[in-house]
Amino acid sequence: MKPIHRQTRIATIIAADGRVIETLIALSPRFKKLRNPVLRRVMAGQVTVAMAARIAGLGEEQIL
Predict the structure, then answer these.
(1) What total number of domains does the chain contain?
(2) 25: how many CB neighbours lie within 10 A of its CB?
């Protein structure tokens, strides 16, 4: 997998390793929607690491 940076899409990270979903949920319950395949397909393809960090109230480095 290519290096992950702030503009990497969450879908790219999940595609490389599906276990990332549970890791993200452990960081913030706001990521629970990623368990739903339909919502995951819609949301993860549009959201970058930087956007996900803001949504969850985390620093980007916590997701990276």
Answers:
(1) 1
(2) 15
| Band of pLDDT at residue 5, cut at 50, 70 and 90 | very high
Domain that holds residue 24: 10-63
pTM, 2 dp? 0.86
Cβ density class 29-64: b for 16+ within 10 Å, e for less? eebeebeeeeebeebbeebbbebbbeebeeeeeebe
The pLDDT tens digits for 18-58 are 999 999 999 999 999 999 999 999 999 999 999 999 999 99
Are 48 and 10 in contact by the 8 Å Cβ rule? The answer is: yes
Flag whether 59 is in a domain: yes
Distance CA 38, CA 3 (A): 26
- Is there a domain that residue 2 lies in? no
